[in-house]
Design a protein that fits this description.
Blueprint: E1 3-4, H1 13-16, H2 27-40, H3 43-54, E2 59-61, H4 66-69, H5 73-85, E3 89-94, E4 97-102, H6 104-114
Antiparallel strand pairs: 1-3, 2-4, 3-4
Length: 117
């Protein structure tokens, strides 16, 4: 049985937020964008996203983040929780370990918000 390890917010790029460069944002849109960008405002979390994006199968076991990040397991888990709460990654428990993958729609929504339109 597969369990989701963290909450996932999946939104289409155009459903979330308009480009902040082409129109004023409503408060709800600004809050949603800020959650995503705040999660990215940490070097370790950017490294985690990069490791997942570069993985051959598009997913990485939680056990494989400790060494490349040079962080303890609890610290890695904290960063993964922040990314999961922001809807940027999702995790599936497989026996003892959780495997993480990107949520492409959420990343596309953040990218679209920075596009010039």
């Amino acid at each position: 049985m597969t369990k989701t390890a963290s909450r996932t917010l999946t939104v289409a790029a155009d459903a979330c937020c308009p480009s902040l460069l082409t129109a004023p944002l409503a408060e709800a849109e600004a809050i949603e964008l800020a959650r995503g960008f705040a999660a990215l405002a940490d070097p370790a979390r950017l490294q985690i996203l990069s490791l997942i994006a570069g993985a051959p199968d598009g997913e990485v076991c939680v056990c494989d983040f400790v060494e490349p990040l040079g962080k303890s397991q609890p610290t890695v888990s904290h960063h993964l929780k922040v990314l999961g709460d922001a809807g940027l990654v999702t995790g599936d428990r497989r026996t003892k370990w959780v495997w993480y993958r990107l949520v492409p729609e959420r990343i596309a929504a953040l990218r679209a918000a920075l596009a010039a339109g």
